Amino acid sequence: MPDDRWLVVGLGNPGPSYAGHRHNVGFQVLDLLGERVGGRFKAARGRADVVEARLAGSPVVLAKPKSYMNESGGPVAAVRSFFKVPVERIVVVHDELDIPFGAVRLKRGGGDNGHNGLRSLTASLGSRDYLRVRVGIGRPPGRQDPADFVLRDFSSAERRDLAFHVDRAADAVEALLAGSLEAAQNSFHADPVA
C-alpha cells in the first residue's frame, strides 16, 4: 500500500566532474543504499534516477535528482507526486557545513541554512517538514568561500575516512526508516569514533 512507502533523496550535482565534491556526499550515501538493496539507478519521470526496493523492511524509492543542486526541488517534487509519498515520509540526505566532518545529525524540518538544494526542495514541496540526514563536511579553512569549499573534492586525509562516514550515514537512513526519529537521533548523534 503506497501509504507506507518512503522517498529517500540524495542531494548532489550530476556528472563525473562533481562526483568527489563535498556537495555530493548525499549522492554517495544513495549510491551505497542502492548497492545494499541490490538495485541499479534508472532514469525516471521528473529528471531523477531512482531505485524502487525494500529497505529496513519498508518499500522505498531512492532518488538522485539529475538537475544541479540549486534546482533539486522540481525533480524531487515530480518523483514525490508520481509515487504519492507524503512529505512526512521524505528523507533528504545532504552535506552540512555547520557540522564537523563525518558527524551525522538527523532532524525534521528547519531552515535551509544557506543550502541551495534545501531551499529549492522546500519551495517545490511547499513544506519544510521532511526528514533530513545531515552529513558533516566541516567549515572551510581560513577565509575560503563556502560556495567554493563545497565544490571541491574531499582532502586526502578526509578521503581516508570518507567510506566509513558514508556507511554510517546510510545506516542512519535505515535506522530512521526502521524506527523513530528520536531513536535514530539517540543512536547517531554521538560523534563517530573513526
Note down, in words, how this protein is organized:
With 194 residues, the chain is α/β, with parallel strands linked by helices. The protein is 36% helix and 22% strand. The protein has six helices and seven strands. It starts with 5 loop residues before the first strand and ends in a 6-residue tail after the last helix.
Summarize the structure.
The chain has about 190 residues and is of the alpha/beta class. It is built from six helices and seven strands, in the order βαβββαββαβααα.
Topology overview:
Blueprint: E1 6-10, H1 25-36, E2 42-44, E3 48-55, E4 58-65, H2 73-83, E5 90-96, E6 104-108, H3 116-125, E7 131-136, H4 146-150, H5 156-178, H6 181-188
Parallel strand pairs: 1-4, 1-5, 5-7
Antiparallel strand pairs: 2-3, 3-4, 6-7
Helix pairs in contact: 1-5, 2-3, 5-6
CATH top level assignment: Alpha Beta
Strand content: 15-25%
Number of domains: 1
H/E element order: EHEEEHEEHEHHH
Give the uncertain stretches in residue-range form. Answer: none
CATH architecture type = 3-Layer(aba) Sandwich
Structural class: alpha/beta
Largest sheet geometry? 7 strands, mixed
> The CATH topology, please?
Rossmann fold
Number of helices: 6
